[in-house]
């Protein structure tokens, strides 16, 4: 995963509050899935990227997203028929 700034993550996740995003990123960092880098400048520049363990989750997460999309289409199709 490319390096992402906090503001980029915030824009990429609709309707997420800053508090919730910070909490989730801290949990992911604690679990070794995300690495946080703080650059000492004003204002502070904080960047996030997946660790090796986080990258290993990508295929599993992709499969789950594909399944959710298929399920959504199935439900939409069933409600029309």
Give the topology, please.
Blueprint lengths: L3 E2 H7 L5 H13 L3 E6 L5 E6 L1 H5 L1 H23 L1
Antiparallel strand pairs: 1-3, 2-3
Description:
The chain has 81 residues and is α+β, with helices and mostly antiparallel strands. Helices cover 59% and strands 17% of the residues. It is built from four helices and three strands; from the N terminus they run E-H-H-E-E-H-H. It has a three-stranded antiparallel beta sheet. A hairpin with a 5-residue loop joins strand 2 (34-39) and strand 3 (45-50). 1% of the residues are buried.
Number of strands: 3
Largest sheet: 3 strands, antiparallel
Q: Give the percentage of residues in beta strands.
A: 15-25%
| Mean pLDDT across all amino acids | 93
Shape: elongated
Oligomer: single chain
- Show unreliable segments: none
Rg estimate, integer Å:
16 Å
CATH superfamily: Winged helix-like DNA-binding domain superfamily/Winged helix DNA-binding domain
- Indicate how many domains the architecture comprises: 1
CATH third-tier fold name: Arc Repressor Mutant, subunit A
Output the strand order for the largest sheet: 1-3-2
What is the name of the CATH class?
A: Mainly Alpha
Structural class: alpha+beta
CATH architecture grouping: Orthogonal Bundle
N-to-C SSE series? EHHEEHH
In angstroms, what separates the terminal alpha carbons?
Answer: 40 Å
**Share of helix among residues?**
55-70%
